[in-house]
Amino acid sequence: MSPLPYLPSEIVADLVLRALCLEARICDISAVCRFWHSIVVRNIAEVLILRENGNMVIVLRRALKHHKLDVALNLVSRPLSSEESEDALVLVAHNGHTDLTRCLMQASQHVAHADCLDGEALVAAAGSGHIEVVHMLLDAPQRAAHTDCSDGNALVAAAIGGYTGVARVLLDALPHAARADCQEGQALVQAAAQGHTEVVCMLMYAPQHAARADCQDGAALIHAASGGHTEVVRHLLDAPQHAAYANCQDFEDGLALTEAASRGHTEVVRQLLDAPQHAARADCQDSYALYLAASGSHTEVMRMLLNAPQNAARADSDNGSGLIEAARGGHTEVVRQLLDAPQNAAHADCQGSLALSGAAHGGHIEVVRMLLYAPQHAAHAGFALIHAAVDGHTEVVRQLLDAPLHTAPDDWEYNVALTEAASGGHT
Questions:
Q1: How far, in Å, CA of 263 to CA of 260, rounded?
Q2: 181 contacts 150 by C-beta, under 8 angstroms
Q3: Calpha distance 243→270 (Å, rounded)
């Protein structure tokens, strides 16, 4: 016998009373229990609804979650209020249950109309990729859902999920076909962000009201670049009309480039720098893309930015902030690139030799050596020695004490470092 759900005491009392009244001749308690169980099973929907204080939709959601379709069918077959039937339709559409959808749309009273709640059921089905439910809602004999309901939310939902079949149905449905450029191209932006190339092309090349690749000031390109979706980026840049600008000049200079650089998307960075028109500048936003690439130790991206044939990024931009971040993280190869840049190389002593202090604090001995022995603008060892002494980095301390004379710590810095090492027990 399967276990019964927890029931409030008043429901249990009512069921037992019914069992005893209907089967007064039964004296065997086990027989009474079996009869009680049969009553609950026959009226399981009512019992569960009573348990949830009359909220049928909560019970339906749990039944669908646990794949109790017989209970779900029992629930939607009951007399429902208009509000219950509409909420239930949205729920079953989202879960893709065609039989339950049909039952609600064909109810004898308080039928759930396909266009109820401004097409929310259609949006739910489209966002989950349930194309058969989408067809049912669009083909309903009365009050069919409109594909352009809620200003195209169904199309946007399908674009987010990359459901090309659903998107095609919504774009081709007549007479209320969804507009590919709805919500100022929001469907395109969402599809690009997720890397759904086929949906992107479908929206950009729609026969009517096609989405613009440069919509929302290049938001589609920015999101695609951030996600490293090279194919989507290529389509947006190569669009025959209203192509996206690689430099995103209508929004924020070079935002697509900085997004791609920060995540190490080498191929996308190359696409943006090599765009035939409105190419991104490697030095945009004071070479901010280089700073982000250095912070993430994306050495190949850095190489491309530093060696761009035009408007190359400056390794010393923002007073050497990129070098400081790289040194603090112990990114040896990044530090080397910044110090050896062919033009505008970073200064090892920038911002009071802060890069060396960060490297010493982290115990990055190879970076320390590179900064101390830089051929020009070598870092000063003083404050770095104090940091290394505090943290007990013996090898770093030794390296700093052996620094060339012109970068060596002075007597005050040496004494402070000695005091800090002693107080920390670093003998």
A1: 5
A2: no
A3: 17
Residue 192 has, within 13 A of its CA and on its CB side, a CA count of 32
Return per-residue pLDDT of the chain as tens, 427 residues. 444 444 444 555 555 555 545 444 445 556 555 544 444 444 454 444 444 445 677 778 887 887 878 778 877 887 878 888 888 899 999 999 999 898 888 876 667 788 888 889 999 999 999 999 999 998 888 888 887 778 889 999 999 999 999 999 999 987 778 899 999 999 999 999 999 999 999 999 998 899 999 999 899 999 999 999 999 999 999 999 899 999 875 545 789 999 999 999 999 999 999 998 889 999 988 899 999 998 888 989 999 998 888 888 998 988 888 899 899 899 999 999 999 988 889 998 989 899 999 999 999 999 999 998 988 888 888 888 888 888 888 898 888 888 887 777 777 877 776 777 667 766 6
Give the pair of three-digit tokens for residue 48. 């569960």
CA–CA dist 356, 352 (Å, integer): 9
| DSSP per position, 88-124 | HHHHHHHHT-HHHHHHHHT-SSS---TTHHHHHHHHH
Nearest-angstrom CA–CA distance, 48 and 6: 9
Cα angle for residues 323, 324, 327 (degrees, 5° grid) = 80
- The number of beta carbons lying within 10 Å of the beta carbon of residue 85 is 22
Q: Which SS3 state, helix, strand or coil, does residue 122 take?
A: helix
How far is residue 88's CA from residue 91's CA, in Å, rounded to a whole number?
5
Q: What's the rounded Cα separation, in Å, for the pair 402 and 162?
A: 61
User: Cis bond leading into 175, ω under 30°?
Assistant: yes
Give the DSSP per-residue string, 178-212. Answer: PPTTHHHHHHHHHHHHHT-HHHHHHHHT-SSSPPP
Q: Residue 340 burial by CB count (10 A; 0-12/13-18/19+): exposed, middle or buried?
A: middle
Instruction: Read off φ and ψ for residue 145, nearest 5 degrees.
Output: -70, 145
d(CA 69, CA 76): 10
> What single-letter amino acid sits at 409?
P
96 Cβ neighbours under 8 A, 6+ residues apart: 125, 128, 130, 132, 133
The CA distance from 311 to 288, in Å, is 13
| Distance separating alpha carbons of residues 265 and 230, to the nearest angstrom | 9
Neighbouring CB atoms inside 10 A of 305's CB total 32
d(CA 17, CA 29): 13
